[in-house]
Design brief:
With 114 residues, the chain is mostly helical. It has five helices and two strands. It has a two-stranded antiparallel sheet. Helix 2 packs antiparallel against helix 3. The radius of gyration is 22 Å and the shape is elongated. The termini are far apart. The mean pLDDT is 80.
């Protein structure tokens, strides 16, 4: 992984050496992939940002991916799945399935006893 980062850093710093068509295409594709990775890390459409970068510019794609806010709904869903929790019916915060009272809004939780 460090070797890849070193190569990318070298290519970005020495942009003047990227005068050949192959080097320019390589820079364009790698920049688009970087934009996709940043967007995917924020739970946004990596494919969408990669296509945006390929069509317009990797710099525009990377800036867009850096400036966009994380997808909070997707993060909340992952948190519910990861922590084995449920949502409060009143305030919609994630609480434990065994909870009788929500720790955020103090409403009574009704659970089916089986």
């Amino acid at each position: 992984m460090d070797d890849i980062i070193d190569r990318l850093t070298y290519l970005l710093v020495n942009f003047r050496e990227l005068t050949s068509a192959a080097g320019f295409i390589f820079f364009w594709i790698v920049g688009s992939l970087i934009a996709a990775l940043i967007a995917a890390y924020k739970h946004r459409s990596g494919l969408g940002f990669m296509l945006l970068s390929l069509l317009l510019s990797p710099i525009i794609g990377i800036l867009g991916a850096l400036l966009v806010l994380p997808n909070e709904l997707s993060l909340a869903r992952r948190k519910l799945i990861k922590e084995n929790s449920k949502r409060c019916g009143e305030c919609a915060e994630a609480i434990k399935p065994e909870a009788r009272i929500c720790r955020y809004c103090h409403s009574t939780q009704f659970t089916a006893n089986t």
